[in-house]
Fold this sequence. Notes:
The chain is mainly alpha-helical. Helices cover 79% and strands 0% of the residues. It contains 3 helices and no strands. Helix 1 (2-20) packs antiparallel against helix 2 and helix 2 runs antiparallel to helix 3. The chain is elongated, with a radius of gyration of 14 Å. The N and C termini lie far apart (38 Å).
Amino acid sequence: QKLMKNNILGFVVYFLTSILFSPAVAVILLAIKENSDRCHYYNGAWNKTDIIIGCSAVALGAAVRCLLFNYFNIELL
Length: 77
């Protein structure tokens, strides 16, 4: 149950980062976090589930960002 909560929280963080800053920033955060987890928790192996969840959050956030900023012409600040 704690693992699912962390996956949902990670999805929300990467999704919002992708919308508010940019998909590139979200991908950099994802790479840094997953590399840290790989070294500290997974004995050098990549956790494919976390990477797939993070990439899908970034892709969805990029789509929403494109829709909001390009289609509806909404601007931050």
